[in-house]
Design goal:
The complex is a heterodimer.
Chain A lengths: L6 E2 L2 E2 H27 L11 H13 L2 H4 L8 H26 L10 H22 L11 H27 L5 H7 L7 H25 L7 H10 L30 H9 L5 H5 L1 H4 L6 H17 L8 H5 L2 H6 L5 H5 L6 H14 L6 H13 L20 E2 L8 E4 L2 H5 L1 H16 L4 E3 L9 H5 L3 H17 L4 E4 L2 H10 L8 E4 H10 L12 E4 L13 H8 L5 E2 L29 H11 L4 E4 L2 H13 L7 E4 H7 L2
Parallel strand pairs in A: 3-5, 4-5, 4-6, 6-7, 8-9, 8-10, 10-11
Antiparallel strand pairs in A: 1-2
Chain B lengths: L1 E6 L1 E2 L10 E3 L4 E3 L7 E2 L1 H17 L2 E7 L5 H10 L3 E5 L9 H15 L4 E5 L10 H8 L4 E11 L2 E7 L4 E6 L3 E5 L11 H9 L4 E2 L12 H4 L24 H14 L4
Parallel strand pairs in B: 1-6, 1-8, 6-7, 7-13, 8-12, 9-12
Antiparallel strand pairs in B: 2-5, 3-4, 9-10, 10-11
Classes of the chains: A mainly alpha, B alpha/beta.
C-alpha cells in the first residue's frame, strides 16, 4: 500500500517520481537561470550594505507578512489570505524538501504531519474566497484576467489532493491521521478496499503532478514573485525616500535611461518581483483620474520588454520609449510615492519613471511646453513662476524681517521658497509664518534676493543638471552665511534641503514649519488660547507625509486649538491622495481624464468640514482652484496650518 | 558653413514692470536684486537658427558678446544650446560705446576670426530695441544684409532668406558671406540639453580685450559715441476713474458720449 514502491510497467514508483521531479526541476532551473541572465544585463548598484538592518526588515516583511498585513483595512482583507497561503506554502515547502531529500528515497509514501492538514484546509477556504473575490466581487485594484485562476485552481487541487490523500491513507491503514483527515475519511466510508486503494494512488500521483506543474509554471507567471520578491525585499532601498540617485556629471556616460539594460539589476529585479496585486494603481492619482499611467502596467510592460530584449528574437527590437512605455506615461507621474508606499514587494516605481523622464528631457529634449517655460524661467531667473509680479522680498513689506546679508547673528534661516515668495496666495502664508516666529521671539532671518529655487521642480521635471546647478548655488550661499538650522515652509524645499543637499555637501538641520510650530507650542512659546468652533480636516502633502513621515506634528498643532473639531479625510496619512501638483505638475497641463485637485476637493466635501488645512504651497493653490471648480467658495475654505494657528493666538 | 552669432546680455525682460528702476543720474537701468541678466531673446533665436543650419549642413558656430565678464553666462547658455565656441569681448575701453562702437568691436573680432560664411544677430536687443549693430557690421564689412529674418535655406549659390514684413514676407537670394538679423518668427529656441550643458561647462571661453582685436581706441567707448543721451526717466502715468451715472442704459450711454466728447476722446 505505497504508491512509491508500487511498480508501474515494472518501474518502481519512486523512480518515476524522481524522474518527473528532475524534469520539472530542470525546466525550473532553465527558466530561472534565463531570467537571472536577463537581470544581469542591468547595471551595477550596491545593495549589499546594512546587512543587519536588511535581515531584520526581511524577516518582519516576509515571515511576519508585514508586506501585506500592513495594508489590511476595512476595505481590503486580502493580506490575511496571503498570510495563510504564505505559511501553508512555507510548511509544505519544508515538507516537500524533506520528502524528496529523504522520505521518497526511503519509500515513505508521505509523512504524517497533522499540522499540514489544518493549513491545507485553511488554504482551501482562502483559495475559494480569492476566486470569489477575483471574479465575483472584484475590487478595483484587481484585474480580471485568466492567469490568477490558473494559480488558484492549481493550489486548490494541490491542497485538495493532499487532504483527500491523508483521508484515504487513514482509511487504508485505519491508524493515525489528523482530525481533518479523520473527518474527511468519513466521506469515503463504505468504499471497498480496492477502490480506496486505487483512489489513493490516483490522488497521490495527481498531487505530485500538480506540484511539478506548479514548479514549471512559477517562473513563467506572476508567481515568480514568490522567489523574486524575497530578494527584492532584502535588497530594498534604504536611502531617504525623498532622495533620488544623483547623476554624477563628472563621470556620466549616459543621462537618464533610454534602454532597459541601463537600469540597475535591482531596478530589473523589481519587474520579476511584481505580483500584479494592483495596490499601486488603486492608489495612483494618475490611474484613478483616468490618465495614461498605471504603475502596475508600467512594471509589467518593462518586464515584457526586458524578456524580449533578453531573448533578442524580435527584429527590429522594439524601443523602450515609444513601443513599450509612452511619453505620456512618463510625464503623468506626480511622484506622489503612493505606489511605492503601498507596494508589498518594495518596488521602486518612481525612480524608474524619473530615470525615463531625465532621458526625455536631458537627451531627447522632449519637454511639454509649459514645463519648458518653467524650466527656462528657472534657468534664467532662479524660480519657476513665469509671470509673477513679485520679487523675493516683496512679502516682507512692513514686517521688518532680517536679511542674512545685513544681520548675520541669527539662529534660524527661514527658507521661504519660490512659491511662498512669489505667489499671491502663498505670500499670505509666508507673512503668517514670519509673524508667528516673531511672536515666539525667534531670532530668524531670510536670504531674500539671494535665495534661489531649491531645485526640486527641475529635478522632478527631469532636468537634473539644472537641479545640481541650483543646489550648488544655494549651498555656496548657505555656507557663506554659516547657516546651521533651516525652517522651510514648502515640503518640496524641505525635502530637497533635508534629503538631497547632504549628498552635495550641504548638511543642515532642516525643519518643516509644521514641526517648528508644533515645537513652539509645546515649549509654550506660542499659546493657542482663542477657541475656534470649526470643523477642520487636514490634507497630508505627499512630500511631508509619505516622503518624510511627518504626520503627527500638523495634527498636534490642530489638537492644540481649543474647540476645534478635527475630522480625518477618507484617504489620509500614508494613504493621502496627491493634490495634483507634485512631480513638476504645478507646471504641466492636465488635459486628460478627471482633474486630480477636483477629486481631492471631493474628498474634502465628503468629510463635511468648514476648513481644509494643509501645509504645502502647491496643495494650497490646488485646493483654491479645486474649491472654485466645485463652487464651494462659500462653504469650504482652504488654509495653511499656520494661518489657522494664528487665528487661535 | 561657419556661423558667427553676436549675442547681448540684457536685464531679464521678465522683471515685473512695476519693479523697473532706473538711475536718472547715471542714466542706467537698475535691475532688481536677485534677477540675473539673460541673453536677449532675439539673440537666443539667432543662436537657435544657427544650430538648425549646423544640424542640416554641418559647420561651426562661434558666439561673440561684448560686455563685462559676467556675460560668461549668456555665452555658456548659447554653448549649452549647441554652439561650438564663444568669445567675450571685455575691456574698460569698451564702456560707453554706442551702437557704432559695439559694431566696430564686433567687426574687429570677426576680422580676427577670419573665416565665416554667415553672421547672425538678433533683430534688436530687447533692452534698448535699437536694432543697429547688425546693419553696421554689414556696412563695415561690405556684406549683404537681410533684416527681420524668419527662415534660411541653403541653396546652390548662397542662401534663400525669408524676411518678415508687416502682413507678408519677402524671399531673397543672398550670396555668402552675409549678415542676417533674426526675428522671433524663427520659433522657440531650444532648451539646452543635458549633454549640451555638460559640454558647455567644460568649454573655456576666452576673454579678448581691445588689444587682442587691435581696436583703434578712438573708435570705441564714450568719447567715440556719436550721440549722447540727455535724459532717462520713467514716464509718469496718471489714471483717473470716473463713474458715469444714469437711470437707463440709453441715458448712461448719452452721458458717456457727452463726457467723451468733452475730454476730446471722440
Amino acid at each position: 500500500m505505497n504508491p512509491a514502491i508500487e511498480r508501474y510497467a515494472n518501474i518502481p514508483g519512486f523512480i518515476l517520481l524522481y524522474a518527473l521531479f528532475f524534469v520539472a526541476i530542470g525546466f525550473f532551473i532553465y527558466r530561472t537561470y534565463q531570467l537571472y541572465r536577463f537581470l544581469r544585463l542591468g547595471g551595477e548598484e550596491n545593495r549589499f550594505d546594512h546587512f543587519a538592518k536588511r535581515s531584520v526588515l526581511f524577516f518582519l516583511w516576509v515571515f511576519g507578512e508585514w508586506c501585506v498585513l500592513r495594508s489590511v483595512s476595512k476595505r481590503d482583507r486580502a493580506g490575511i489570505s496571503h498570510f495563510v497561503m504564505f505559511w501553508t506554502f512555507i510548511l509544505f515547502f519544508i515538507y516537500y524538501a524533506y520528502f524528496f531529500a529523504w522520505g521518497a528515497w526511503h519509500h515513505t509514501n508521505s509523512i504524517n504531519v497533522g499540522v499540514l492538514d489544518y493549513f491545507a484546509l485553511c488554504s482551501l477556504g482562502v483559495v475559494l474566497w480569492a476566486l470569489v473575490r477575483r471574479y465575483v466581487v472584484r475590487p478595483v485594484r484587481l484585474e480580471k484576467n485568466f492567469e490568477p485562476a490558473i494559480i488558484l485552481v492549481l493550489i486548490f487541487f494541490l491542497m485538495g489532493t493532499h487532504i483527500a490523500g491523508e483521508a484515504l491513507k487513514n482509511l487504508l491503514r485505519e491508524t493515525g491521521g489528523s482530525m481533518i483527515a479523520l473527518a474527511f475519511a468519513r466521506g469515503f466510508n463504505g468504499l471497498s478496499q480496492s477502490t480506496l486503494r486505487a483512489s489513493y494512488y490516483t490522488v497521490w500521483w495527481v498531487h505530485f503532478l500538480i506540484l511539478f506543474g506548479f514548479l514549471v509554471y512559477i517562473p513563467y507567471s506572476k508567481h515568480l514573485h514568490i522567489i523574486a520578491a524575497l530578494f527584492n525585499v532584502f535588497f530594498r532601498s534604504l536611502r531617504p525616500k525623498g532622495a533620488l540617485i544623483p547623476i554624477d556629471i563628472e563621470t556620466a556616460n549616459r543621462l537618464g535611461i533610454e534602454k532597459i539594460e541601463e537600469f540597475s539589476w535591482k531596478q530589473l529585479l523589481d519587474l520579476y518581483a511584481c505580483a500584479e496585486c494592483g495596490r499601486c494603481q488603486a492608489n495612483c492619482p494618475a490611474s484613478l483620474s483616468a490618465k495614461p499611467l498605471s504603475p502596475q502596467k508600467l512594471i509589467k510592460n518593462l518586464k515584457t520588454h526586458l524578456i524580449e530584449r533578453g531573448m533578442i528574437k524580435r527584429q527590429p527590437a522594439p524601443q523602450l520609449i515609444g513601443d513599450r512605455i509612452s511619453e505620456e506615461e512618463v510625464w503623468n507621474c506626480l511622484t506622489c510615492y503612493a505606489c511605492q508606499q503601498v507596494c508589498p514587494v518594495c518596488n521602486e516605481h518612481t525612480d524608474k519613471i524619473m530615470e525615463l523622464r531625465r532621458n526625455l528631457v536631458l537627451v531627447k529634449n522632449k519637454v511639454p511646453e509649459t514645463a519648458e517655460r518653467a524650466l527656462r524661467m528657472l534657468m534664467m531667473r532662479g524660480d519657476p513662476w513665469v509671470g509673477t509680479q513679485y520679487l523675493r522680498t516683496d512679502w516682507t513689506n512692513d514686517l521688518r524681517v532680517n536679511k542674512l546679508s545685513e544681520e548675520r547673528s541669527i539662529d534660524i534661516l527661514y527658507w521661504v521658497g519660490c512659491t511662498g515668495a512669489l505667489d499671491e496666495r502663498n505670500i499670505k502664508v509666508t507673512r503668517t509664518i514670519a509673524q508667528l516666529m516673531k511672536q515666539a521671539d525667534i531670532n530668524f532671518g531670510i536670504l531674500g534676493a539671494e535665495e534661489s529655487c531649491c531645485g526640486d521642480p527641475a529635478r522632478r521635471m527631469g532636468q537634473e543638471l539644472l537641479f545640481q546647478t541650483q543646489i550648488q548655488r544655494n549651498i555656496d550661499t548657505l555656507k557663506r552665511y554659516k547657516v546651521k538650522k533651516i525652517v522651510a515652509s514648502c515640503p518640496h524645499g524641505y525635502n530637497t534641503l533635508k534629503n538631497e543637499y547632504p549628498k552635495f555637501g550641504g548638511e543642515f538641520e532642516v525643519l518643516h514649519h509644521t514641526e517648528f510650530l508644533d515645537e513652539l507650542i509645546k515649549r509654550g512659546k506660542l499659546k493657542p488660547i482663542k477657541s475656534l468652533d470649526k470643523k477642520v480636516t487636514y490634507h497630508d502633502p505627499c512630500y511631508l507625509g509619505r516622503y518624510n513621515d511627518i504626520y503627527e506634528a500638523p495634527r498636534a498643532i490642530l489638537s492644540s486649538i481649543p474647540l476645534l473639531k478635527f475630522k480625518e479625510l477618507k484617504r489620509s496619512g500614508k494613504e493621502s491622495f496627491c493634490c495634483g501638483g507634485g512631480g513638476g505638475h504645478m507646471w504641466l497641463e492636465e488635459n486628460i481624464g478627471k482633474r486630480i485637485n477636483v477629486m481631492r476637493t471631493e474628498d474634502v466635501m465628503e468629510a463635511e468640514v468648514d476648513i481644509v488645512v494643509t501645509a504645502c504651497p502647491f496643495c494650497l493653490q490646488m485646493f483654491e482652484d479645486g474649491i472654485k471648480k466645485k463652487h464651494q467658495q462659500g462653504s469650504i475654505e482652504v488654509m495653511d496650518i499656520s494661518e489657522l494657528l494664528q487665528k487661535a493666538i | 558653413m561657419n556661423i558667427i552669432v553676436c549675442v547681448k546680455q540684457i536685464p531679464n525682460p521678465e522683471i515685473p514692470p512695476d519693479k523697473f528702476r532706473i538711475d536718472p543720474e547715471a542714466k542706467r537701468v537698475i535691475p532688481p536684486e536677485g534677477i540675473p541678466p539673460v541673453i536677449s531673446p532675439y539673440d537666443e533665436r539667432a543662436v537657435e537658427l544657427a544650430i538648425r543650419l549646423k544640424e542640416k549642413n554641418g559647420g561651426k558656430i562661434t558666439v561673440l558678446t561684448v560686455g563685462d565678464p559676467s556675460s560668461m553666462s549668456v555665452v555658456k547658455h548659447a554653448l549649452s544650446m549647441g554652439a561650438d565656441d564663444g568669445v567675450i569681448l571685455s575691456d574698460q575701453a569698451f564702456e560707453g560705446s554706442d551702437s557704432f562702437g559695439i559694431a566696430y568691436i564686433l567687426t574687429k573680432t570677426i576680422q580676427k576670426i577670419g573665416s565665416f560664411d554667415l553672421i547672425l544677430c538678433g533683430r534688436q536687443a530687447a533692452d534698448w530695441d535699437e536694432g543697429l549693430v547688425g546693419s553696421i557690421i554689414a556696412e563695415s564689412l561690405t556684406l549683404p544684409l537681410v533684416s527681420l529674418v524668419k527662415a534660411v535655406d541653403i541653396i546652390e549659390k548662397g542662401l534663400k532668406v525669408t524676411r518678415v514684413t508687416l502682413e507678408a514676407y519677402q524671399v531673397f537670394a543672398v550670396s555668402t558671406p552675409a549678415v542676417l538679423t533674426v526675428s522671433q518668427e524663427v520659433g522657440r529656441p531650444r532648451l539646452p540639453s543635458g549633454w549640451g550643458i555638460i559640454a558647455a561647462a567644460r568649454k573655456q571661453v576666452p576673454v579678448w580685450n581691445a588689444k587682442d582685436i587691435s581696436a583703434d581706441l578712438s573708435q570705441i567707448g564714450g568719447v567715440a559715441a556719436r550721440r549722447k543721451m540727455i535724459k532717462l526717466f520713467i514716464p509718469e502715468r496718471e489714471r483717473k476713474c470716473e463713474i458715469i451715472g444714469g437711470e437707463t442704459a440709453a441715458e448712461m450711454a448719452t452721458q458717456l458720449a457727452n463726457r467723451l466728447t468733452e475730454v476730446g476722446a471722440i
